[in-house]
Amino acid sequence: MKIVIAPDSYKGSLSALEASKAIERGVRKALPDAKTELVPVADGGEGTMDSLVAATNGRKVEVTVKGPLLEDVQAAYGILGDQETCVIEMASASGLCLVDPDELNPLITTTYGTGELIQKALNDGCRKFILAVGGSATNDAGVGMLLALGMRVLDEDGKPLGFGGAELSRISEINTEDFDSRIADSKFLIASDVQNPLVGPDGASSVFGPQKGATPAMVELLDKALSSWADLVEIKTGIHLHDKAGAGAAGGIGGAFQAFFPAETKRGIDIVLEHTKMGGKLSDADCVFTGEGQIDYQTASGKAPMGIAQEAKKYDIPVFVLAGSIGTGIEVLYDHGVTSVHSLVNAPMPLKEAMDRGAELLEVSAEQVMRTFLGAIKNSR
Fold it and tell me: Do residues 273 and 312 make contact, with C-beta atoms less than 8 angstroms apart?
């Protein structure tokens, strides 16, 4: 019997690879001679680079760049097995994970380090890029990234401006004369399932600003700043970003790619499924295990377990989802290929304990689900 094991990470507890190995141990307790294939996945956020590098026998390049608060941070980009495609996780240079919770401030955080990663990869000869833009700590419309790549933004006196979302309202001129010319000869695939516009009640500041430290007053200021920036971009490029779907992704960096890069956007999980050749792995499988930390109605919007289930449904393969916690609205998942959803928590316990025991609990849950599946097969004969 062949079992495909393809979970996302259980954030704060297990990486996707660690989760895969825990599930495999549980499966083998129930079926020692099982043929297992481990395919750690991600949906465009943290872990996307590792998933794609591992799936293609690629490599990672460690570099030092500026973090969200302009401090030096160790980041990396991935070179896929084709030796042509670069994968960059925005979060590794400009992510929430790099800022202490009490220091979060989207008025000043910057995407400059993400631009540095792109520049270093261009210097490495890369011309095909996959950008995973989840988990950012920024709300600067990607202007920091643009600055790192040679663009200049000037105030009404023709002087360069500082960094962060608050500075956008002071920009009077966008100067692209020194913008890296290699970008026009490159291709950028943006991994994102965010369809929010740049500004307004559904825009980057209103929807995502609070999780990056924005107070209601900051949200109002940032939204006005993004609108001012979008006005200038439209004058410069003719592109109306204000209500453009996806422009609000990652604090507005989605709009920067739409306006200044040869870029297209796809769901992160679809990019991962393609590069891991998931369809071929599932075509002769008997079942698939997937999962992540939280399963709820949002899972259906393009999270990894949903993408796995949709792919498995093409082959009529049972899909078992193992969740750290189960929220509301999971019923919709059953219409898209999910067979059942199972919580790892098997007794009352604090969240920290559950996260600390993640591997153990995942192994136990996988074993019990596998035993149930084997019993159902036996009883159907």
Answer: no
